[in-house]
Amino acid sequence: MASFLWTVCLSFLLLASGSKGAAPRKPIDVPFGRNYVPTWAFDHIKYFNGGSEIQLTLDKYTGTGFQSKGSYLFGHFSMHIKMVPGDSAGTVTAFYLSSQNSEHDEIDFEFLGNRTGQPYILQTNVFTGGKGDREQRIYLWFDPTREYHTYSALWNIYQIVFFVDDVPIRVFKNSKDLGVRFPFNQPMKLYSSLWNADDWATRGGLEKTDWSKAPFIATYKGFHIDGCEASVNAKFCDTQGKRWWDQKEFQDLDAIQYQRLDWVRQKYTIYNYCTDRVRFPTAAPECKQDHDI
């Protein structure tokens, strides 16, 4: 009951005050084909409502995915997704930004399926210069298979913020003063995919995909990108410092957002690489910052 009341209160605060780390206006959703193209297994993608809604299908033969046509240096990226319902163990629904070379930068949402009745796990990760191992995992405070929810990333020169329905669930600050690389000069494409990862996704690979439940379907709409488009080889965006997500109010979370972030940490976080002394006897330098402890 306490969790339900807090969720209601949280929704009221979002409606009443807005969220400084999210777009200052309602994102403009466009048809899938405006900004995206399928990447493989085209026959496993179905289009509805004039291309404003699509389904990705996973069967025992293949999954599928899509990517943005353009590459972007900074911006705000969001998607409305309805996850695979029922027994989804072994499946991964991914939504992420990634650059194109071996020392790549990456900003990951990975939704790890589970046995029927068990909650989804949302895993986030950040790669800089080809180095990842920055996983954090949370349970969601709702059933992500029943209706659409919004997952978004704000990326500027100061921070990367992961949002679920405008609630910040993670912040990765630019900690170059601590010797930590930060994504700033490699344009990234936006990707999404549905695929089988039963070697690791559910309980470390103990729970395998039940193919008798196939096909597995994830549904998408709200294909929103508001970023600085650049060539893959670009190192600098000519609008840098001029867009809404570059402005001072987006250099950090505000007090209400930090309260929401603390709520997620306290109630729903189940793994944080910053506190894993088995894998990392010495915490990563960025973990010294308050936002990752």
From TrEMBL:
The keyword Lipid biosynthesis does not apply. Residues 23-220 form the GH16 domain. Gene3D superfamilies: 2.60.120.200. Keywords: Apoplast, Cell wall, Cell wall biogenesis/degradation, Disulfide bond, Glycoprotein, Glycosidase, Hydrolase, Secreted, Signal, Transferase. Its EC number is 2.4.1.207. Residues 1-21 form the signal peptide. It is found in: Secreted, Cell wall; Secreted, Extracellular space, Apoplast. It holds the Pfam family XET_C. Contains at least one intrachain disulfide bond essential for its enzymatic activity. It comes from the Eukaryota. SUPFAM superfamilies: Concanavalin A-like lectins/glucanases. Its main location: secreted. Catalyzes xyloglucan endohydrolysis (XEH) and/or endotransglycosylation (XET). Cleaves and religates xyloglucan polymers, an essential constituent of the primary cell wall, and thereby participates in cell wall construction of growing tissues. Belongs to the glycosyl hydrolase 16 family. This is Xyloglucan endotransglucosylase/hydrolase. It comes from Hevea brasiliensis (Para rubber tree).
